[in-house]
Amino acid sequence: MEDLIQNLGSVKVPKREDKIYKDECVYSFDTPESPEGLYISLSSFHGLGRDHLERYSKKTGQNVFFNIRRTKQAIVDQGGDGPAKKITRLAIGTPGGFVPDEQKFTYEDTYQIIVMPKFAVVDYPNNDLPEHVKNSIIGVLQGESAMKVAEREALAGTWDGEAKVISKHAANLLQLDNGKKIPPSGWKCERCDLTQNLWLNLTDGSILCGRKFYDGTGGNDHAVEHYRTTGHPLAVKLGTITKEGTGDVYSYDEDDMVDDPNLIVHLAHWGINIAHLEKTEKSMVELELDLNQKFGEWVALQEAASKLTPVYGSGYTGLNNLGNSCYLNSVMQTIFVIPDFIQRFVDPALDIFDGNTVDPANDFNVQMAKLGVGLLSGKYSVAPEAEKEDGGRQGVPPRMFKSLIGKGHPGFSSTRQQDAQEFFLHFINILDRHSVHKANPADAFKFKVEERYQCSSSNKVKYSYRPEYLLPLPIPLDAATNLEEVAAYEAEKKDAESSGRRLDTSTPPVRPHIKLSSCLESFARTELVEQFYSTALNEKTTATKKTRLSTTPDYLLLHLKKFNVSEDWTPIKLDVAVEMPDILDISLLRGAGKQVDEELLPESADSVPAPVYNEEIMGQLLEMGFHPEACKRALYFTENKGLEAATNWIMEHIADSDFTDDFVPPGVDPTPSRNFVPGPGLDYLLNLGFTQEQAVRALKATDNNVERAVDWIFSRQGDVEPVEMDEDKSEGFRDGGDRYKLVGFISHMGTSTMVGHYVCHLLKDGRWVIFNDEKVALSENPPKELGYIYMYQRITS
């Protein structure tokens, strides 16, 4: 008690605005359930694992800590206590989703006060404690966890993929008085013989079949065709209506499942009394769950048909799925295979932990180091002891990292599924911002793309270069090696649809098989560029374009462009198998630069006319939800001919890798990225009191945008160091040989990037390992042909 009294002045009572980290160590993945429990500073309220306690105390001078130890014990299943848990969401590790081997536990907490540096122990509860200390501990125990606060703030205003929005048509839906009355049973599509998957249009009472599913089952699209003809927006799926007045309601106009709070009234208009209805059909979510559990990618990619052998230890730690965070898990598992990331964030981790930052949970370098050490140390990947009923703790939950990396992003801050490729690029952008004074480990992925344009009228050429981190590859379906099999399968499926019968779903569909070489050839194919501004002619003409690689990275990421948009504007995924070689030679893609016999086009001058965009059509495209830069492209290349032409152009090019990049007309030199131009912007920042080094760095990082430059500086206060005036952040390209070996791939299962699940396979110690969230096991049949993003490592010998 004497040691506590001597440090009484440092003890604080938490205020409303204080963040209390009582769920997890800010520097590691230790929790109250760890053997030594969690130590919470009664000064800063940072939670600490035992490994960081002494170092933190010495560094900060904080000596009083509240120790929480939590033990859990599995509740013995007595049997007969209820039905097995029903899967209701297409997700893994989230409420209602796939939760394998789920058990129920009871928890018990014990407490102590620890006073450093002597490690003196004071029992708690303790009536002899000073009132100030009691109030501090009560505040910690009763206060809301900082991690829960962060999750709530991140989810504010977002939709987690489960709740449905109320349809804008529900309040004033038009319902025709055409005399129709719907019987309680015996329904059939009015345009074919289907008697299942039927939808009642709430405006005119038509009963029509729904869309067909990707396995050939479902309907014949008659309900959606009816909407296109009539514009009647709402339909309810017959057989899903319950006595409580709920059911699957789809809004064709809003292109989503919606909530109709007036469904009882709308059904009564057609003579339907919900008290007499029973739910007889599966909902759309249940159907998709059934389809995905039945066969195909879910089985193959998770190797569900194999009995996998778990592996433990350093480099074999899984990541818990935090509300559809499997896209993040797969990307970060893959990244921490790269030596550059280990050298930056894992090897010097103790120095990073000693940084004494104000809030380690919001320090990017700290959280990256925490994640890297957590994955590679082996501390959180220990083979379970046979006598432990709960199987021991496996995997770590990247809560703080996810909260930090997703902050301010409407998608990555939510619990919705996201695209792994988009998350990787988002992560690279954040990493770049935090690598101002340090080597950027993302340089291992970075390569320079060369684009060669040749003016069709003058034959003069132009070369432009840009950095990339993934190589997007188109998938040429016409190059499939099994075209006849695919055609036969499609014909059988079409015949089944027209006759109203269903295909045998006990076997998977026939996928087109495509060689990677065909994808590479398609990428390297010469393109015809319309509306090319030739500086030799000072007018528009046509040109040919070749895309090559000017440099090759140490680690080459290939992104297969599997996701596209169908004719009815719904997202689709190409169900294809791409044959990926273990050894890859990309010399076909190597650029040669300017040749001696080539004459360059003159540099574009200030007199180049700026593109003119039809404001009316631009407004209509923006209202449809298209990105502004994509709208500019569409209007430029269709010469403002009209909404239909622009829309068709967008749908044809929506999968282009530069679809939303800043638009620069072909042939016109872009404003150099991150190029500092002395001028009024510099003077303005200097007048605000910033140093010249800060102003120059900020203007370079924001393309001379003064407003963004101010935000850039404020967001990095305390992190801006002197910089050489000629610093060029566009460098960092590596180069070497063109031969690579396959060392990893990320796979997606599901029909679009917004649903489904991601896993990754990595080649470790000469054997393939599957990382399926927290489960890590030896891979028996790595499905190399079904991946989404592939990682190849340069062969150096």
Automatic annotation (TrEMBL):
Taxonomic superkingdom: Eukaryota
Residue span(s) of domain UBA: 612-653, 670-716
Enzyme Commission number(s) of this protein: 3.4.19.12
SUPFAM superfamilies: Cysteine proteinases (SSF54001), RING/U-box (SSF57850), UBA-like (SSF46934)
Catalytic residues, chain numbering: C326, H757
Residues the record lists as binding Zn(2+): C189, C192, C209, H222
GO biological process: protein deubiquitination; proteolysis
Residue ranges occupied by any UBP-type domain in the UniProt entry: 165-274
InterPro entries named among the record's database cross-references: Papain-like_cys_pep_sf, Peptidase_C19_UCH, Ub_carboxyl-term_hydrolase, UBA, UBA-like_sf, Ubiquitinyl_hydrolase, UBP13_Znf-UBP_var, USP
Record flagged with keyword Hydrolase: yes
Reactions it catalyzes: Thiol-dependent hydrolysis of ester, thioester, amide, peptide and isopeptide bonds formed by the C-terminal Gly of ubiquitin (a 76-residue protein attached to proteins as an intracellular targeting signal)
Keywords (A to Z) from UniProt: Hydrolase, Metal-binding, Protease, Repeat, Thiol protease, Ubl conjugation pathway, Zinc, Zinc-finger
GO molecular function: cysteine-type deubiquitinase activity; zinc ion binding
Pfam families given in the database record: UBA, UCH, zf-UBP, zf-UBP_var
Every USP domain range: 317-795
Family: Belongs to the peptidase C19 family.
Identification of the protein by name: Ubiquitin carboxyl-terminal hydrolase
Organism listed in the record: Fopius arisanus
